[in-house]
Amino acid sequence: MRVGVLGARGKVGTEVCRAVEAAPDTELVASVDAGDDIEALVHSRAQVVVDFTHPDVVMDNLRFCIANGIHAVVGTTGFDQSRLDQLDAWLADAPGVGVLIAPNFSIGAILMMRFAAQAAPFFESVEVIELHHPDKADAPSGTARRTAEMIAAARRDAGSAPMPDATTTGLEGARGADVDGVRVHGLRVRGLVAHQEVILGGAGETLTIRHDSLDRISFTPGVLAGVRAVADHPGLTVGLDSFLDIG
Amino acid sequence: MRVGVLGARGKVGTEVCRAVEAAPDTELVASVDAGDDIEALVHSRAQVVVDFTHPDVVMDNLRFCIANGIHAVVGTTGFDQSRLDQLDAWLADAPGVGVLIAPNFSIGAILMMRFAAQAAPFFESVEVIELHHPDKADAPSGTARRTAEMIAAARRDAGSAPMPDATTTGLEGARGADVDGVRVHGLRVRGLVAHQEVILGGAGETLTIRHDSLDRISFTPGVLAGVRAVADHPGLTVGLDSFLDIG
Amino acid sequence: MRVGVLGARGKVGTEVCRAVEAAPDTELVASVDAGDDIEALVHSRAQVVVDFTHPDVVMDNLRFCIANGIHAVVGTTGFDQSRLDQLDAWLADAPGVGVLIAPNFSIGAILMMRFAAQAAPFFESVEVIELHHPDKADAPSGTARRTAEMIAAARRDAGSAPMPDATTTGLEGARGADVDGVRVHGLRVRGLVAHQEVILGGAGETLTIRHDSLDRISFTPGVLAGVRAVADHPGLTVGLDSFLDIG
Amino acid sequence: MRVGVLGARGKVGTEVCRAVEAAPDTELVASVDAGDDIEALVHSRAQVVVDFTHPDVVMDNLRFCIANGIHAVVGTTGFDQSRLDQLDAWLADAPGVGVLIAPNFSIGAILMMRFAAQAAPFFESVEVIELHHPDKADAPSGTARRTAEMIAAARRDAGSAPMPDATTTGLEGARGADVDGVRVHGLRVRGLVAHQEVILGGAGETLTIRHDSLDRISFTPGVLAGVRAVADHPGLTVGLDSFLDIG
Fold first, then answer.
1. Pathway of this protein (chains A, B, C, D) (predicted)?
2. Which candidate, D195, B124, B206, D212, places its Cα nearest to that of A212?
3. I need a surface site. Which of C11, C52, C66, D244 has the fewest CB within 10 A?
4. Annotation-wise, does B143 bind a ligand?
5. Half-sphere exposure of residue C147, counting CA atoms within 13 Å on the CB side?
């Protein structure tokens, strides 16, 4: 598979280039960054493009790819509904082309969220702990909020009862933040990278699902999975999980 | 739902009786143990029977239930293929009756095994740790062996590569037991009850799925789930997981 | 060693009686509860008494023991400074007698707190997570508060810098409760018993100290340790840790 | 404090140089590697040298430092008894000079080992799990072996009973390796770096001490602690722990 990378000299793009070169079934045919000519994608006959650029340029990049029949796997952020609608419109005129927009390429994180939501209706209690380095600006993390929302939605759909909690006295903040009725706790400890744990409990037992992300390169297997599958999924797809053939 | 319990005065049966009485949608109408008349199930118009008795008597119990149109949820052990074939034959003559044979009613354990097998093909490495009290006679535990077999089967089906392991020197036993190519480690520590952890890892990240069973009553929610669903699954079902509506 | 138990028919006292009988070097010579004659301690020539009774009666019990030259190991709560002063005064007249007042007899909990405080000055960050069943009324737990206070005191004595935390946006409660500058997070999950984890982190590494209390009997080894050592510690001692010969 | 680094261009030496420059109370005055003139240490008036070089050259380096009255903090490996005896002899002629030889500068690892050994006599059972990336050649790790030996020695000194283990049937290797009677389990999982867990258990409770080393720089705080303290410890010291003022 002939792959081009947009944002090829960025931190993430550099790792993507390395992974595309290392995999036996993908070939890096174009590395494009700010200042380079995007026509290189066409000249090199790239079949799939990976875009880790910037919200300011990603739409132009995608218009070009779609117009030239190149599939795209996109990790750049900033996609709101109007952008997704625009992509849908462009793709309507390019029936064979697939575009994947994914907020998270870590397969471990995707599975953690999915399993947590699937298991949530089977237990009385579910809480989320996220643990990060202390230079992080937001608490809880975006992934923890999203996980809690998915858990809450799954329990709502299943008609689960509210979680038991007899707390009547205590210190402010001791029970964490409330995200749609799910308690979320954020730790900031030097030496940590990015970690999350979901604890589910019922009579006499608990189930714990934990994801530890220790290195930036954890997203590369997910990017490669997207590259391999995007041609078989014409049109617009949001979220890598729909490409993963789980169970 | 009118429920009878066979083996009602055993350790497990006692908890089952208590759980059936406590649940809002089930009613305990018959408690039968060795020496009692099994006809009580018919007189009390039990719709479902829960059987935690003994391999020596369970087949007689089930022939009686099937003949009388009573569904059965069975936690008694000792079912080999010939017994399952016998049940199939009896059920062929009782088209509306459902029988569930389950080796494990802990929903946490069932989900742990299922998630571990689903996730296994997405990672380079998978290992299993089981931790129990030191009075246990077998190592590794039956659940750990079964988990490893499920992981190995899932990876075989997906065409996963063998796991990386550069170990060349060491002490005997340091890398655990080999179950179908999956390493399994058994700890025996006073104070523990029954715990298992599956660690899956790929480039830069790990996913950990852990089950802690701290009290015998952890199986009662699974038994109740079986009681509620068995009437809707006529014929023979092996394993509670096919009754759980996951994801 | 001849041991009497006060509060012998209570939940805790029952376990203490059992442990005293089971240990090879202790003998249960008197079991006293409300309505029984405390003189039984003298008639049975008890050398040490274990008291798990009630704040209303414990001072009378101890006055009796001290007056009769019987050592005491006390798990009953409610000791303020004035009570401790009173005990000191009584013990001044009974020079050989030892009394141990301990808020916590779990050796695991005592070591967790001690190690956490010892390690705290060597790391940039320290946070505490406590996890309990959801029927608990207070959050955070008393043990977690005490642990955080000990950590804060150790860091103050060592002149440690404040912990790093770049959090600027977030949800209320996400960063837990603040106990003397140490963040404490409380989870309430069905199936849990009583658990606590202290996470310490510095550049590139973390140290985690975790205590899991799964069964009420976890305090009995600590009670026996107190029984064996109290005769060698005449006067008043508060806290079992000073009896433990650590390192 | 004026610090010189030997092996300054190696992986570890580079991090040491960076840490010495970053700390407020240390100044990097000489960076020496193979091919450079070691006299630079004298010309720059270094007070302390950090040596992360090679077993082939470290003894020459130390002879030079001792002869010139420069203290040394040494992470280079390969010190057997005859080398330590040689250092003692050289130091006898340089009464004010201190040399620290440390196999491990990670404060987290040192505390983990120390706490595990201190706690070991208070519990019935102790086992060790070490978890590393799958490119590691030896199993179990050297740190895990050393930890198990320290645990075994502490229990021997305390007269602890052998650990309970009722295992009678099982698979080869399931119970791990036996190091002086302490079971050690080694996992090799892609995505992991270097992790170790010691689980201690008694009636109804467990204490777990875990060290996670996620980044090479975890040793730099220990090196700086050595640099700051070595001048106050004339003569030869083996092991950083004797410099740490714990509890």
1. Amino-acid biosynthesis; L-lysine biosynthesis via DAP pathway; (S)-tetrahydrodipicolinate from L-aspartate: step 4/4
2. B206
3. C11
4. yes
5. 34
Quote the minimal CA–CA distance from D157 to chain C in Å. 11
State both tokens at A187. 């730790």
Q: How many residues does chain D have?
A: 247
Q: Over chain C, what is the mean pLDDT? A: 96
Residues of A with CB under 8 A from a CB of B: 106-109, 111-112, 114-115, 117-119, 122-123, 200, 202-221, 244, 246-247
Residue A132 annotated in active site: yes
Determine the Cα–Cα distance for residues D212 and D111; give it in Å rounded to an integer: 12
Cis geometry, peptide bond prior to residue D140 (ω within 30 degrees of 0): yes
Tell me the mean pLDDT in the region A207-220. Answer: 94
SS3 B10: coil
What are B160-217's pLDDT values in tens digits? 999 999 999 999 999 999 999 999 999 999 999 999 999 999 999 999 999 999 998 8
Closest alpha carbon to A187 in D224, C233, D125, C206: C206
pLDDT in tens, D212-237: 999 988 999 999 999 999 999 999 99
Residues B22 and B58: beta-carbon distance below 8 Å = no
User: How far is the C-alpha of A111 from the C-alpha of B200, rounded, in Å?
Assistant: 11
* Angle (nearest 5°) at CA A134 between B198 and B202: 30
> How many C-alpha atoms does A149 have within 13 Å on its Cβ side?
7
Instruction: Look at residue A247 in the predicted model and tell me its pLDDT.
Output: 64
Helix, strand, coil tally for chain A in percent (to 5): 40, 25, 35
Mutate to test the interface with B, among A12, A206, A207, A213 (most CBs of B within 10 A): A207
ipTM: 0.89
A73 and A236 Cβ atoms separated by less than 8 Å: no
The 3-class SS string of chain C reads: CEEEEECCCCHHHHHHHHHHHHCCCCEEEEEECCCCCCCHHHHCCCCEEEECCCHHHHHHHHHHHHHCCCEEEECCCCCCHHHHHHHHHHHHCCCCCEEEECCCCCHHHHHHHHHHHHHHHHCCEEEEEEEECCCCCEECCHHHHHHHHHHHHHHHHHCCCCCCCCCCEECCCCCCEEECCEEEEEEECCCCCEEEEEEEEECCEEEEEEEEECCHHHHHHHHHHHHHHHHHCCEEEECHHHHCCCC
pLDDT tens-digit readout, D81-106: 999 999 999 999 999 999 999 988 99
Q: How many CB atoms lie within 10 A of CB C47?
A: 19
Structural element, H or E, at residue B6: strand B2-6
Spatial distance between the Cα atoms of D202 and C135, rounded to a whole number of angstroms: 25
Beginning with the edge strand found earlier in the chain, give each strand of the sheet holding B2-6 in spatial order: B27-32, B2-6, B48-51, B71-74, B98-101, B235-238
D67: closest CA of chain C, how far (Å)? 33
Q: How many CB atoms lie within 10 A of CB C54?
A: 15
C-alpha closest to that of B100 among B233, B244, B216: B233
| D164 DSSP 8-state letter | P
**pLDDT tens for each residue of D108-162:** 999 999 999 999 999 999 999 999 999 999 999 999 999 999 999 999 999 999 9
Provide the H-helix boundaries in A51-106: 55-67, 81-92
pTM: 0.91
Q: Specify the 3-state DSSP secondary structure of A149.
A: helix
Residues D110, B164: Cα–Cα separation, whole Å: 29
**Residue D28 Cα, gap to closest chain C Cα (Å):** 20
Given a contact cutoff of 8 angstroms between Cβ atoms, the answer to whether A28 and A3 are in contact is: yes
Q: Interhelix angle for C107-119 vs D107-119, to 10°?
A: 150
Q: Are D168 and B198 in contact (CB under 8 A)?
A: no
Residue numbers in C near B218 (CB within 8 A):
191
Residue of D nearest to B164 (CA): D134
Judging contacts by C-beta atoms under 8 Å, the chain A residues touching residue B204 are 213-220
- Strands B205-213 and A205-213, by their bridges, are antiparallel
